[in-house]
Design brief:
The strands form two sheets. A four-stranded antiparallel β-sheet has the order 3-2-5-6, with no helix packed on it. A three-stranded mixed β-sheet has the order 4-1-7. By secondary structure, it is mainly beta. The protein contains one helix and seven strands; from the N terminus they run E-E-E-E-H-E-E-E. The protein is globular. The chain is about 5% helix and about 40% strand.
Length: about 80
């Protein structure tokens, strides 16, 4: 018997959805000033190190067929909602 566990200490879980609460896979979350881009998985989620977010001011979320959104890292919540184009 084996158990898989994920240590989430120091990580921020972010979920990206559309306005109908459908989770969006493949959404790109770009952290300004870091040259780092994180992508949501098939469940519309991704983990970003808190240390990366603490050292940045803005992040941009892009997904095909949706309007891009730019957010302050101070105002980021665990769920980001994108609107259709």
């Amino acid at each position: 018997m084996s158990t898989n566990a994920v240590n989430t200490d120091g990580l921020c879980l972010i979920t990206v959805t559309d306005s109908n609460n459908e989770k969006l896979s493949g959404a790109a979350i770009e952290i300004s000033g870091t040259n780092k881009v994180y992508y949501t998985n098939i469940n519309g989620t991704c983990y970003i190190p808190k240390s990366v977010l603490n050292n940045a001011e803005l992040l941009t979320v892009n997904c095909i067929s949706y309007k891009s959104i730019q957010l302050s890292t101070e105002n980021i919540h665990s769920k980001i909602v994108l609107k259709s184009r």
